[in-house]
Amino acid sequence: MIKLNINGKEQSWDGDPDLSLLWYLRDEAGLTGTKFGCGEAYCGACTVLVDKEAVRSCITTVSDVVGRQVTTIEGLHPTGDHAVQKAWRQLNVPQCGYCQAGQIMQAAALLLDNPKPSHEQIKEAMSGNICRCGCYQRIENAVHLASTGV
Amino acid sequence: MNIIANPHKLRGFEKHIRVENVSRRTILKRLGIAGAFVLAAPVMSRTAFAYETGAADMPHGVVVDPRVFVAIAPDGAVTIVAHRSEMGTGIRTSLPLVVAEEMEADWTRVKVQQADGDEVKYGNQDTDGSRSTRHYLMPMRQIGAAARTMLENAAAKRWGVPVTEARATNHEVVHGASGRRIGFGELAADAAKEQVPAIASLKLKDPKDFRYLGKGEVSIVDLRDITVGTARYGGDIRLPGMKYAVIARPPVTGGKLVSFDGAEAMKVSGVEKVMEVKGWPWPSKFQPLGGVAVIARNTGAAIKGRDALKIVWDDGANAKYESAAYRAALEDAVRKPGLIVRKEGDVDTALKNADKVIVGEYYLPHLAHVSMEPPVAVADVKGDKAEIWAPVQSPGGTHEDVAKTLGIPEDNVTINVTLLGGGFGRKSKCDFALEAALLSKALGAQVKVQWTREDDIRHDFLHTVSVERIEAGLDKNGKVTAWRHRSAAPSIASTFEANTVHQAAFELGMGLVDMPFEIGNIQCENPEAPAHTRIGWFRSVSNIPHAFAVQSMVGELAHATNRDQKDMLLELIGSPRIVNLSSVKDLWNYGEPYDSYPIDTARLRRVVELVAEKAGWGRSVPKGHGLGIAVHRSFVSYIATVVEVSVDDKGKLTVPRVDTAIDCGTYINPERIRSQIEGAAIMGLSLTKYGEVTFKDGKVQQGNFDDFPLVRIDEAPLVTNVYIVPPAADTPPSGAGEPGVPPFAPALINAIFAATGKRIRSLPIGKQLET
Fold it and tell me: Which residues of B touch A129 (CB under 8 A)?
């Protein structure tokens, strides 16, 4: 039996300890905000916070996060008003929206680590997250906006 | 009480809805094969439309009935149905916004409801071809105006005043003389009893009174849900007791299963079953490829189980497909005469007599769509009833195909359309929904079929692969007197008809035969090109290779005659005129009547001039930088792009700036047009730098973002400017989702030539610039 902490709630899992966190979150815990994009950590659609770090949940196993705090898009802010989320809405960032949970979690992790990133630092931090619709310019501007006050 | 009382019995315009030929409807229509169907009555009378579109020619045409699209609750909450699929264009917001505009609803009190797949009820739902705004702007206005009229009629009756004195404004009806007002909610029940007014009698709002249309101040309805993780895409549907499945499909198109051993897969924790699933023989249309399904308690277990399968495949007739050899065959084909598809003057003689002939051969490989959400579908089939949840661009086609594939009546099938995590044409093919339906039936359980990224890239309906050859003859003054363009590429029609070797009318009409240059001797040819994999629509389709060739050749001609690219381009476009394409048999004009949507070179010139002015064409740029320009009409819109590129001494390419001008006629939401064009630049950059799917032994060699890379944020253009041409009065709406893509690659390639003197004719760029 594995004990997990997801969005501040204790959960237990008695299945395969090597199950990826992504599929645990989506299929077992019902937290479908975290998205599947590639399964190989190339695209960042599945990004969640483990403690304060952005990780790719698709290559992270359930047993990897035992004793750590997992935060998904659903748990980022109680009313969905994290500075990054607000900036995203203010600049109308998304097109299809599918990759955006991962983008937002990555941006939130960046700001935890570096509250005032430069544009270069934003690009570097966000370069692991692919957006096929091509919202990059708005993503960059939204992270900047979130860091300067929405 | 709602205006929608019983929509199934209230189809005010049903006499105009074609229900015949439903079973074999979509394919030929979609292919644009002329003469396949002759339409019955037009959907609306000509006078009701300020312009004619091809909307009526689409399967099931158009339904203009407020009772189908609008509901008003007693508390005044207005529900408007979005019947097109949302894949990132914003259409699920834009079309309901048009209804709200015309009916004078307050947008903050409007809820959007996604339609299920039911074209008899809603009219055509195929969300592709950049058609939604151009086909539905006017019908949505009419629906809104009809609802407004019904509300006004109800209010006038209640007050006992002439209807001309009752005016709807901002969610209520007002009696001007007395100042009396009644809210929409209070009027809903009475309005529902009013007769739906005839279209010809409707009074549309004066555009100067628009509150929302053309303003771009309304955000998409899903914005908040997207940012908090509650937006529902295909894979986000969870049913109680639902099983999770992945499928191992034949690695070669047209291959089939010989045998499999699932013993090791069954040992994987969480795997519950391994079973064969039915496939269809090549060419398989939109039907599933078949293979072996692994069913588990979660997707992770299913994937692990699939990895443990031992399968023997029969690779079939396409096992020898190999990209380098195929390219050589296409090059061979374009160096010989091919089927003539446009002929004006005498190109052979003109080329013979030319002072100089410039020849360019351009190669574009297969491309995969790779929407961020790979195909996925959920199905619940019980007995002769089926319910599907899927991110499909073709809700109506999926509805019909699920019924047909399961052998059950269409009335027993429900297609719930989720948000699409990108589509780009891939999700116009419902094979993944059919897989889920078949598997659910076989299992007797609710099931989700999830495609992995590798499944997506290896079993895509790929963008075609092509070689384009252009020979341009110049006289001694540097004027182009002859133009021969041969285009060899396997056709999308091959996915439906065996032995297809020529491009269909709709592919030829995407930038080959509709080439707008004013040249005396023009010949377009289409040599044969058989297909060896599934070919499908990819955002902007054949416009990509055709525009790449034509607009690259403009750059080559400018260089050959020592002229500015933009000047060369404008000279070739020639005088402002409507291009006469009477020499083209079966001209396909994006399904639109040529009268409403002709090729107007004045509009083409205007976007070139506008983008050149805004981009500061001719400005001096730093060393290693270059400017390139390209223009292309597609989806009956006009788009010109200027790209600034920088190439360093190691050959590393960056794009400091992109400027794009688009003339898409009358529009709804300029903010979403801008986002489409920004995104098109990224997609254009991805395909130009990296895009390539190759085959060896019939199998796709790529599988994920490591070997099919996409542009990331650190490579994105630093600045993307979009200029939208303000529409002249009554200019019909045209496409915005796709047209941004085609001019990007040639503009970038022309810029690279300006920066480096290197002419790239083979995409992707890959390592060609490295030194």
Answer: 712-713
